[in-house]
């Protein structure tokens, strides 16, 4: 509620005063702008409009292509999705993601992942290893469970990273450690909570012991 009141106050002020776009709630989301308390609001607005989402994603320095909307089974399929062949870092294999999931990934990679890698290792993330995104299945793969966000290409499971030329950091082995790798993975997890709706890591449950689950869904949870 406090954020909405603040947004309203800024909006009213903006009718009379020219303010920078980063502090204007009605200005479009710019992926390269340093995040602030309005970023989440702008991300929500961009995510809610298919055309705006696609236009905003064009700001990312990625290799990707739109894919046709498809319903593969009841409760499964994707719309306004893209096939991502490369982010700023390479990916272990191309994957499908809804546009709104892709926007969150772009913000996370740019403002959390790469800066954290440079701080902890003095080198960038050059490859993101993952367990997949789209999968027509229920939560935890249970046949009678509600559909997972993977079933609509709104989630990605990140298993690890390649730093620089050859350093490999896996979520499974790094998470419990107190060295640079452990701190980096935990920072990647916590930073993701700024841009995704649900973020699950190894502390959530045994099913997530070896990856970070990053999704755009109906509720907020960071565990």
Write a structural description.
It is a single chain. This protein is an alpha+beta fold and 223 residues long. Helices cover 32% and strands 26% of the residues. The chain contains six helices and eleven strands. The chain has helices spanning 2-14, 39-48, 50-57, 99-121, 171-174, 180-192, and strands at residues 63-67, 70-73, 76-78, 81-86, 90-98, 125-132, 155-163, 167-170, 198-200, 212-215, 221-222. The strands form two sheets. Strands 1, 4, 5, 6, 7, 8, 9, 10 and 11 form a nine-stranded mixed beta sheet that branches. A two-stranded antiparallel sheet has the order 2-3. Helix 3 (50-57) runs parallel beside helix 4 (99-121). The radius of gyration is 18 Å and the shape is globular.
Summarize the structure.
The chain is an alpha+beta fold and 223 residues long. Helices cover 32% and strands 26% of the residues.
Protein topology:
Elements: H1 2-14, H2 39-48, H3 50-57, E1 63-67, E2 70-73, E3 76-78, E4 81-86, E5 90-98, H4 99-121, E6 125-132, E7 155-163, E8 167-170, H5 171-174, H6 180-192, E9 198-200, E10 212-215, E11 221-222
Parallel strand pairs: 5-6, 9-11
Antiparallel strand pairs: 1-4, 2-3, 4-5, 6-7, 7-8, 7-10, 9-10
Helix pairs in contact: 2-4, 3-4, 4-6
